[in-house]
Protein 1
Amino acid sequence: VMLIKNGFKNKDLMNVTIANFFFTIAGTVFWLITANIIKPAIYGELSYYFSLSLLLGYIATLGLHTTVSTYYPKERNPDLVGASLLVTVVTAGIFSIFTSIITTIYVSLLLIGTAIYVVSTYVLLGEQQYGLYSKAVVFARIIQIGSSILLYFVLDWPGVLLGFVLGYLSVGLFFINKIRLSNPFPILKSKIPFIKYAFIANALYMLNYHMDRIIIGSFFENAILGYYQLAIQAFRALAFIPVSIFQYLLPQKAAGSISKNVEFAGIVLAAILSAATIVLSPFVIPIVAPEYT
């Protein structure tokens, strides 16, 4: 208990955690509300498109978002930020060409928006601007949910995807001016070993997080994926705890300061919330989305 209380006293950690909590819970509530508006088949199709675009968007960063948040606290080199953003935009652009051919342009736009947003927010973490990071994350989510609901009634389900694009770009476009239009290789060359492992770690994490829905959406009816998407919302929501701790500790470790108490408190809190979710979810889902039970 004391460890958890000490974590609450850490202002920077709380900024990151509260932002990620809002981002995750607001997204979960949005998906629950959406489940009551659209049919399970469309719900499943949206889930498939979101998972595909978010997976490829993170992969398009090539692990450079983690690289920035690790090396910038030590080097304070703006060229590292510029080179990382440039490579990310180019890679995401290439990925988007292929996704627009096999899926829809909205998936491609969300892929690009995701990649730019991820690197941009990790730049803030690398700069240790945790308060600004918190505001950016909350602002992006508010824009996403508000515009998605409005655009749904105008464009149907593509409007939901477009709304999330607008949310990500509302933050990411503020960092475009940091791009350095020069050869990024000399800046990133010395960090290639770290970039390689960061890319693999992030890719495996995102595959674990999204691949289930991509597989289900590829081989089964969209309605089945819709039921599955709703069922896992509560458990996905708990991801904000380890993510927040990782995002906070990575630049802290790079700068030479670390707290074991924060790590342990996060593990304890995640275990408690996981147990509560397992107990309560069978009672909550029939109430919030009766059509899916």
Protein 2
Amino acid sequence: NAQYFFNYDASGNIRTKYTLFWNVTSFDGASKDVYTYNAANKVLTYMHYQKVSGIWAPAGKSENTYDGSGNLMQTLYYDYSGPVPDTSARTLFAYYANNKLQSQTEEDYDGAGSFVPSSLDSFGYNGTDFYTFDETRDWNADSNRWDKSSLETRRLNGANLPDTIYFYGVDSATNDYVVSFKTTWKYNANNNPVETIGVLDYMGNMIELVHYYYYYEARWDLGVANVAKNSSFTIYPNPANNELNIKSKQAIAGNVVVQVVNNLGQVVMQTMLAGSDNMKLSIAVLQSGSEQVA
């Protein structure tokens, strides 16, 4: 149903991604994503295009700004109603001194040169930098304040694994947080979860909704035995210009994901074919070069 094609820059970053969908008799370009990067290989800009009447028309854009530590500080979003981008929103990020994310603020553009707050996510960590809470607040323009929306807190054990997670809603009468759901976790000596219990607060009554047990199989395999091949393939012609034939000694049931990989190990094409003993892969849009099929 879909094919994906990728182009890379000299640093191995994805420069362009094409998405094609099946259109009755052939694959047709549906969207194109274009990325640019800074010297640290972090995304600077992202452009999204859609094909309209055979022409790639810009549909959306985002621009990222980073601080000296490489932390993402701001993402600006743009919409397109024509060739010129219209500012639509932005996301602001703040960090603790140890570069852990402290808050994320969503703001909408008002069309008059200003951004209006929409939502605020705040994050907290314990002394060893493990995530312990996430609070969301919504902007109340009438009262000019941040109103509580939701809260998640995590109590961690000595291995910094959550043993209790609380999810809170807001009591409309008091504007205070109240527990709406709680999960508890138990672990074995290898820090694998062995039991999870989920409890819902329904009108003041704690009701157990889920209760899971996890079991593990101990293995001491020191190597991997040779495994007989289930299928072998013949791919021709080689070289090919427009289409590859993929023949199997036995019919393959279901769908098959096929990737074309260049000499650097980068995926330049990915598609799904209906399984059979003779599949055809269209490669007409690929640039000339040496690739492998997986």
Protein 3
Amino acid sequence: VSAGGESVHCRSTGRVRTARSGAGSGTEMQGSGLIKSPSVILGLLRIADIAVLIVTAIVAYGLRHGTFLLPQDYVTATIAGLLVTLQVFHFGRLYDFKLLDQFFPEVTKLITLWSGVGLILIAIGFFIKVSDDFSRIWAGLWLAGSFLGFVALRLYVKLQIMSWRRRGVLTRKLVIVGAGDHARRFIEPLQASAGPGVDLVGIFDERKSRIPRQIEGVPVLGTIDELMAYIRKNPIDQIVLALPWSAEKRLIELMNLLRTVPIDVQLCPDQIGFRLFDRSVSHLHDQVTRKQAD
């Protein structure tokens, strides 16, 4: 469950770098905040895909006809291909940040979706009876060149993400709400896991004056009111509500409160959920269920 109303599964993955204080260098964090945003990276990838389609269409025409000036009908076909591609890639969920970490699965999906784009364009040309108006060599060069361009782009992005993570630039800054047993059981596997990408900034809890200054080495930074002030002054990517699900009223209050900030808010698993991290999450209509056996 998330504050935005979407069902999500909060699971411990990634290497944690626990903050030693409540705030780091504001200049440093602000400077890396834009480039490390998954939405910005995916947006730039979409723009790059558009550029690939346009450039390869022009180059393919130049290779076939000896001029890079596209006639009107080829311009129309390029725009149609661009629109179909964006829709197929979007609904095929190619622009998924998690997929950027998995180069070969991403290329496999790209092959499937790009093949679908080609078939759709062929079908459109057949039904509106314009397929004979276009050079098949141009179409083949365009499709093949665009595919190679898409693959090269994603390889570059994959390598760039790896480089950013090594330098600590592409790191998800995370805070936890709640300093009880749920928080402890969430933090322990998160700190022990081997992958990169998570910076556990701190914990916020209403009982700040009655709890230790640190939980599993993570600093307690303040109360919920102080959290709201903190996230407006510091770049935070994700908030995890580590509270028991039985505290339904309090959870709803917090989720409603956190709707006002543009941050991903996730609900930590309840007690049994910590024992079932190897089970997948499924959706049954509007309900979320966890698979226990095949």
Protein 4
Amino acid sequence: FIGTSMESGARTATTVVIAVAAAGIIPGVVASTGLGPNLTSLILAVSGESLVLLLLITGVSSIILGMGMPTTVTYIILVSLLGSAISSIGGIPILAAHLFILYFGVIADITPPVAVAAYAASGIAKSDQFQTGVEAFSLSLNKAIVPFAFVLSPGILLLRGTGGAESVHTLTAADIADLGFFVPEVLIPVICVFLGVYALGPTVIGYLYSRVSQTERALFALSAFLLMAPMLLLNAAFDLGGFLGLVGEVPNTVPVDLAMRAVGGALFGALAVKNRREAGDKAAPTVAEQAEPTD
């Protein structure tokens, strides 16, 4: 039994070992050619002082560089190329930065034109490859928003603090007992992320209890953003206002975050109740339908 288990483990680990060994060449090339620092410098120069622009550029770069590669190789390569760009700005925890890059690197498997996983599925379903990739990306839209929630609300990852490893730690019993921190920065954001993912359902599919109009789909999308990553919208608005010289720094405070999540929750609740009532009205029989036919 032990010998069989060891043999099975070795066979299973072979592909991972090969991938890691092959991927090890890439960081060496990056370090020797100076590509990593140059790419990081380019991203930082283009994004300027905008955290939102930095995250968007890094996300798109992760999708492009992650196309057609296994997950393990994708993670190793992307972290070596892009990890320092995120973690060096805004006091973002290293774990949040790595998960941000990993999520977008994995999204590459379902993002056309090189949607490897979607193309494999289309071969099984005998469907159009590109359309399958588009549908796969649409149905996985939440994966493009959750990474922003990781970066902007590290409490979702059960982390406390910002910046490097010396100032960030995983939650302890004392942190959980500190309700002034745990409830607004961990519990509420986690619940809101679940609600936000649920709100993206009618946004993508166009149906909840009944059909959803285009305007309602846009409002569901807005509620999802407010629930999952409210500071992303606020940072974007202040970046635009700063570019136009209208506003100053972003009020990155917990009360502002909670207020925006409350607005998103209220908007989602109102839309869900309205849609439920519309479904009930359509299902309810009219007076003529209730009347029994007479001879």
